[in-house]
Design brief:
Blueprint lengths: L4 E4 L14 E4 L2 E7 L14 H18 L7 E8 L5 H12 L5 E6 L10 E8 L2
Parallel strand pairs: 4-5
Antiparallel strand pairs: 1-2, 2-3, 3-6, 4-6
């Protein structure tokens, strides 16, 4: 029998704001839901600071990866949603801090708003452990 689908709910993260889970493992793939700058209690970290919000979003992603026994080197693809595309250069050093030498495929999209009006960035990922 092949590997099965497993929903992951990460204790360090706040409760989902809708009908989803933090990540889903399907065989060797891990699909990580959009990570934002919510702390464990659902409060926004670093209001007005896209760099601080990106750092918190990536810390939340790291918690998902750790729960699946993976690291940022396993991440194959990310999609970044920015409220202001001009902030791309500001968040790039934070990405490098977390991904180090690993360079995932990436898509960057400017959006008009995220789930809360105080959020400036969201990032989702697909990781592979094969």
């Amino acid at each position: 029998m092949g590997k099965q689908r497993q929903e992951l709910r990460v204790a360090e993260l706040s409760s989902p704001v809708s009908h989803y889970t933090d990540a889903v493992r399907c065989g060797d793939f891990l699909f990580i839901s959009g990570c934002v700058a919510f702390d464990q209690h659902g409060s926004i970290v670093s209001k007005g600071d896209v760099v601080g919000q990106m750092r918190k979003a990536l810390e939340n992603m790291q918690a998902c990866l750790t729960a699946a026994n993976m690291t940022f080197s396993n991440v194959a693809k990310v999609t970044v949603f920015l409220v202001d595309i001009n902030n791309r250069a500001a968040i790039n050093p934070v990405r490098k801090e977390f991904f180090k030498d690993a360079k995932p495929a990436s898509t960057l999209v400017e959006v008009t708003k995220l789930v809360s009006p105080d959020l400036l960035v969201e990032i989702e990922a697909v990781a592979y452990d094969g």
